[in-house]
Amino acid sequence: MSQEENQNGNMNKIISIINKAIKKCPQYEHSQNYLLESRKIVLFNEGLRDQISKCQEEIRLLQKELAQPSKKLRRKAYEISKKYKCSNCDKKYGSEASLNLHCKIKHAFSETDSKTQIDHSFQI
């Protein structure tokens, strides 16, 4: 077999493979706008990609919130029982430290002079 016959045989095999592939393909419909359909699919995929990225961002934020401990919630002023009363004025405080700070700032006494007195009228 010559080289030219060998090339023709290979070419015939390739052509028969292409013809078989063409027979398996659906027929081209002239009424169908394939370019418009492909553009619709591209736009739809872009929309899906945007939704996926938004969901991934939300997931990252939620994971970040779960990983970090949240701030300690403070009690409201009306929730604090104020049983420490200033001996110099009628102010009441929820902790001895707050009362001592008040006395230092407002009354200019030392901590030993401003010993706390618990208001006995306070009921739990």
Automatic annotation (TrEMBL):
GO molecular function annotations of the record: zinc ion binding
InterPro entries: Znf_C2H2_type
Keywords: Metal-binding, Zinc, Zinc-finger
Domain called C2H2-type: residue spans: 84-112
Protein name: C2H2-type domain-containing protein
